[in-house]
Amino acid sequence: MFLTDEEKSILDGERGAGYQKAMELIYALGLTFDAEKLIPIKRAHVALSGQEGDTYWCELLVNGGAVCAVPPTTNPYWDTAYLTKFFDVTREELELAERTGDAYRRIGAKLTYHCAPGLGTNVPFFGEHVAFSESSATPYVNGALGARSNRESSVSALAAAVIGKTPLYGYHLDECRRGDFLIDVDADMPECYDWGILGHCVGKIAGSRNPVLRFKNTPRPGQEDFLYFGAEAATSGAVAMYHMVGVTPEAPTLEAAFGGRKIPSAECVITNKELKAEEDSLTPATGEINLVMLGCPHYTYNQLLEVERLFAGRRVNGSTAFWILAEAGAVELAERSHLRQRLELLGVRMVGDTCIDEPCWKSFEGSLGVTDSPKCAYYRERRGQPFAIRRLSVCVEAAVKGRLD
Ligand code: F3S
């Protein structure tokens, strides 16, 4: 793999141990994937998680003198000031959260704490080379926006942000962005929840291949729809790039989606029946609930408004908590618009900067929760809370009753 004299000097440690570690990782990645050279990136997003491994890596680099050449935006951890008013956490959990914020601040990250950067806090242009971690963000920037990112880890994205470069391989190359196989879709997609279920279905079929979706009736998905589709395709599978014919920017035609390759016949057809079967396989649980959790990925302001509309003045049942995770800017806007105050009167709380996969939520574990996100259910169940998955309107009805029928 070709390195410039400057890149070699960083690898030799001439700029200090922090830059050297970052370059060692990028160089090793490049060698592993047969990259020809490094290329500059314009943007980065780091899936900071507030967990020990990511924090350790950031401290290692910054204590070695590294500062980001390209300031990355960051994923959420949890809002320690707000959530400790409601939940008990241990001193160790609090200290880890504080160490995380401190390390990323010192290395020069933009502390957006938002897991949908492509929607507003860090939006790449078409064709831009970037290094984005966060499983829901990578398919969004590749598929929906036509920017170019590999499936970075928090570790490799931070190394790329420090050096300002990434190895030229994978989704940075035209030949790796083309469609690998075709799926026909003949289904109604009324809500972003349905896009999430479609993504979950597609991810299982695709694995890490690039799916091309050909719709019977060309849809016009909005940003939340793209986000939920990609988040779930990257949860049930490892999809980082997809095409929707006549919809996404690199697929104006079926021929363009396959980049000149022979167009295969459709591997399968997804109709309302397959989506219903997928939903049923994900959502069997019923009974008393102690939590409704929304915002994985983070809710937008429009989604907050939709929650208020569905409540229609009713209140959350006294035995149930209702939490929405959203980008801090959306929470701030809701505060200014008094949407936050109106929702709180109904028993709905919202919080910025926070992920569902954090220790602050542990008091709910052991009882049934409800969410509109298969990704949320997947992560929460690993921490010991079973979750039913339902569309938003059903989540709201369950919150009002305190149970899911
Ligand atoms: Fe965001 Fe955490 Fe879900 S980073 S997508 S809330 S798992």
Structure description:
41% of the residues lie in helices and 15% in strands. It is α/β, with parallel strands linked by helices. It folds into three domains: 5-174, Aconitase, domain 3, CATH 3.30.499; 178-280, no CATH class; 283-404, Aconitase, domain 3. The strands form five sheets. It has a five-stranded parallel sheet, sandwiched between helices. Strands 8-7-6-9 form a four-stranded parallel sheet. A three-stranded parallel sheet has the order 3-2-4. β14 (369-371), α16 and β15 form a beta-alpha-beta unit. The relative contact order is 0.12. The mean pLDDT is 96. FE3-S4 cluster binds at residues 75-76, 115, 136, 296-298, 325, 355-357, 375, 379. It comes from Synergistes jonesii.
Mean pLDDT: 96
Bound small molecules, deduplicated: FE3-S4 cluster
Instruction: Give a count of the beta strands, DSSP E runs of length 2 or more.
Output: 16
CATH class of the largest domain: Alpha Beta
List segments where confidence is low: pLDDT < 50 over at least 5 consecutive residues.
none
Q: If helices are DSSP runs of H or I spanning 4 or more residues, what is the number of helices? A: 17
Shape category: globular
Cα-to-Cα separation, first versus last residue: 59 Å
The CATH architecture of the largest domain would be 2-Layer Sandwich
> Helicity range of the residues?
40-55%
Would you tell me the structural class of the helices and strands? alpha/beta
In which order are the strands of the major sheet placed? 13-12-11-14-15
Protein name: Phosphomevalonate dehydratase large subunit-like domain-containing protein
Organism: Synergistes jonesii
Keywords: Iron, Lyase
GO molecular function: lyase activity
